[in-house]
Please model this.
Amino acid sequence: MLPVDAAQKAGSSPMRVGIVCPYDWSAPGGVKQHIRDLANALQDLGHDVSVLTPCEDESDLEPFVVSAGRPIPVPYNGSVARLSFGPVSAARVRRWVRDGDFDVVHVHEPASPSLSVLACWVCDGPLVATWHSSSERSRAMSAFYYLLQTAMEKISGRIAVSEKARQTLVENVGGDAVLIPNGVTCKQFEGGEPFEGYPRPGRTILFLGRIDEPRKGLQVLLHAMPKIVDRFPDIRLLVAGPGDVDGLRASLDPKVAEHIEFLGLISEDDKVRAFKSADVYVAPNTGGESFGIVLLESMAAGTPVLASDIEAFAKVLEHGSAGALFENENSEDLATQLEQLLADDARCLALRAEGFRRSREFDWASVARDVVRVYEAVLQPGVKVEADFSGQVFGRFG
Amino acid sequence: MWVAIGIVVVLALFGVYLASTAGRLDRLHHRVDTACASLNAQLLRRSTIAFELAMSGELDPAASLVLADAAIRAQENDGDPVDRAQPESDLTKAIIATIGSREAVDLLFATESGTTLGNQLSSALHRTAISRRFYNDAVRACRAVRRQHLVRWFSLAGHTPMPQTVEMDDEVPSGFEGR
Model:
C-alpha cells in the first residue's frame, strides 16, 4: 500500500497555472469574465496563476495579467474578430511560457485563430483547453482543420462549459470533454442595498436583457402584464437592459406603460441592487440559452426566480424546486404562475432558501475545484510546460 | 530528364509526408503514454484511500470488509489499466454499495477524520473518471491515425502495440456529486 500522505501530497500541492485568453482584456465579454473569475478562484485555492491575453489598454491590469500586445481586427467567419497572431505574438507566447515555469497551461476557445491556438502550437507539456461557444462549424474550420490539427492533438484534457459547447467540440474536432459549467461569484451578490424606495409594498418584478432581442422574451412578459396589473394594481416592472426604449414605450398600452420603469444598461453593482429591489426576477427567454448564469446570480442575491421552462433553465432550477417555471412563450401561464408566487409568501421564502443553496453549488470556489481536478489528471510529475521548437515549420515533425 | 526530376520531387514530397505523419503518430503515442500513467496513478490513489477508509473505523464492520476486499483486489493486479478494468469496476461497485448514498456520505462528513477521508476519496473518484475519459480520448485519436492505409503499409507505428481503451465502471456515486 502506498502511504496516503505521499499520494495526497502528489495530488493537491499548489500549482503554477498559465491561462491564455483569446480576446481583448480591455473589452467586456463572457470568456474574459470567466477567465478573470477562474484566475481569482484558483488563487484563493492557493495556486499561482498568470494570464496571457491580448490587450488594447495596458494600463491598470490586474497583477496576474500579462499583455501579449494589441489585438488586430480581421475579418473571420463572417464578422470582424479582434485577435492576436503572427510571429511577434508567437514570440511573446514562447517567452511567457519560458518565464512562467508552468505545471499546466490552460487555453480557452482553442479552435479560433487566436493566441490560444498559438499557445497550443508553442507549448509542450500538460495542456488543458476549454470550449465556450456553441458555434456552427465554420467553412474555414471544415476545409482547413488540417492546419489546426497538430495544435489540437497536443491538448491532453478538454473541458466544455455547456452540453451545447460539448456537442460543438464533438462534431467539429472529435473526441470528448469533461463538462464543467460556468461559475457564479456568489459573494458579489450577497451585499448591496436595494434602490431607494424599494422594496415596495405594491410588489416589484425584474427583467434583465436586451429589450429588442426576441430571444430574451420581454414581449412574452409584456403580454402577461395586463392580467398581472389587474391582480396587483400597484405592481412595478423594472426593465434593465439596452435597446430602443422610446420606440418600445410608444408601442405600449399606456395602462401597462405606467407600471414599467426602464433602467437602460446597468452596471454590475446596479445589477445587484436591482435584484435586491425586486420580489421576483422573471426570465422569459424563449431559447438560445445554454446555461442561465443570471438565474444563479438572482438566486445568490436571494431573489426568487420565475423562468421559462426551456431545458437549460429547468435544469438550473432543478425542475421547479429551486425556482418557479412557466410554459415557454405562454404569457397566460406566466401571469398565472407569477400571481401565485407573489401571493404566496411561504413559497417565496422556501424558493429563496432553495435558490440560495443551489447557487452555492455553482460558486466559483466549487467550479475551480473541479477545474483543478482536471489539471491534476493531466499533470506529469516533474514535468513543466516548455516552449516547443520542434516542428514549427509544419508543426508536424518530431 | 524532366520526368526523372519530377519523380524525384514527388518521391521527396512523399517522404516528407511520411516523416511528418510518423512524427504526429509519435506525439499521439506519447499522449497515450502520459494519459495512461496518469490513469494508473489515479486508480492507485483511489484504491489506497478506499483501503484507508475501510481501516479507519468510520464505517460499520461489514461495509469495511467489503470495501477493504475490493480495494486489495484492485491493487493486486498491477498491470495496465486495460487488464485491471474488472477489479477496478468491482471497487467502484463496492464504493457505491458501502458509501455511495447521500445519507452515508453525510454521515461520513459528520466527523472531522471522516471529512478528511471523505474529501480525499471524493477527489480520487472524480479524478479517476476524468483521467479515464482523457485516456480514452487519446487512444481514440491515436487509433484513428493508425488505421490509415499509409500508416499500416509503411508500418509507421513500428512495433508499438495498438493502444486499447479502458472500459470500466467509474461512476461517481450520487452521494459524492458536487463534493
About this structure: The domain at 4-183+366-387 of chain A is CATH 3.40.50.2000 (Rossmann fold). The longest strand of chain A covers residues 48-53. Chain A touches chain B at residues 1-2, 4, 7-8, 10-12, 149-150, 153-154, 156-158, 174-176, 178, 361, 366, 370, 373-374, 376-380, 391, 394, 396-398 (CB under 8 Å). The longest helix of chain A spans residues 345-361.
